[in-house]
């Protein structure tokens, strides 16, 4: 009797398994693959060093405080007429305390990250997000000017404060 009761409960409960796997919707991915792009340079090259200099840990004593200010320029040239605008996205390892910031490489300073900003130095560009869009003009250069700054994310421990970011130009 117990065995048939257990088997009956098992069979009855398995009837609800399908409800957990219900069909909820469809996602259609669309896009275009193009061979057209602009020539891209970052501060005159493709692997660009940006020197944030030497900063006192006292300058970063409060979480969110920034120090140093280094310019970074990405230039688009020889853009095909079919491309009308572009944005820049920065990617890299995000900081554990603030995922919008770029983490420092291991083995150096802690409690600090690198923030990327628009040219005004105040408008932060979170990692993985678009910069301000700029129009492209065929046969002309389009300059994207950015600022990098150290940002305090916790108690600062001194050491090398290096980070690595990749950038992608997205055409609209």
Structural summary, described in words:
This protein is globular. The longest helix is centred in the first third of the chain and has 13 residues, at 2-14. 10% of the residues lie in helices and 34% in strands. Mean pLDDT is 87; it is low at 1-10. A five-stranded antiparallel sheet has the order 1-2-7-5-4, with no helix packed on it. It has one domain (37-171): Fimbrial-type adhesion domain (Immunoglobulin-like, Sandwich), CATH 2.60.40.1090. It is mainly beta. Residues 27-171 form the Fimbrial-type adhesion domain. This is Type-1 fimbrial protein, A chain. Keywords: Signal. Residues 1-22 form the signal peptide. InterPro entries: Adhesion_dom_fimbrial, Adhesion_dom_fimbrial_sf, Adhesion_dom_sf, Bact_Fimbrial_Adh_Pro.
User: What is the mean predicted local confidence, pLDDT?
Assistant: 87
Overall geometry comes to globular
Strand order in the largest sheet: 1-2-7-5-4
**Structural classification:** mainly beta
Largest sheet: 5 strands, antiparallel
Organism: Pseudomonas fluorescens
Domain Fimbrial-type adhesion: 27-171
Protein name: Type-1 fimbrial protein, A chain
GO cellular component, one term: pilus
């Amino acid at each position: 009797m117990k065995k048939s009761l257990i088997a009956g409960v098992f069979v009855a409960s398995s009837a609800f398994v399908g409800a957990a796997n219900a069909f909820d919707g469809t996602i259609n991915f669309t896009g275009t693959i193009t061979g057209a792009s602009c020539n891209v340079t970052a501060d005159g090259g493709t692997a660009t060093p940006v020197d944030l200099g030497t900063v006192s840990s006292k300058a970063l004593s409060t979480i969110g405080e920034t120090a140093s200010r280094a310019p970074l320029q990405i230039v688009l040239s020889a853009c095909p007429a079919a491309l009308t605008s572009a944005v820049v996205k920065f990617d890299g390892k995000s900081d554990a305390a603030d995922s919008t910031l770029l983490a420092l490489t291991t083995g150096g300073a802690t409690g600090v990250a690198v923030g990327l900003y628009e040219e005004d130095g105040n408008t932060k560009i979170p990692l993985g997000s678009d910069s301000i869009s700029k129009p492209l003009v065929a046969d002309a250069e389009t300059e994207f000017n950015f600022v990098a700054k150290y940002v305090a994310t916790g108690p600062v421990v001194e050491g090398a404060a290096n980070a690595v970011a990749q950038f992608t130009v997205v055409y609209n």
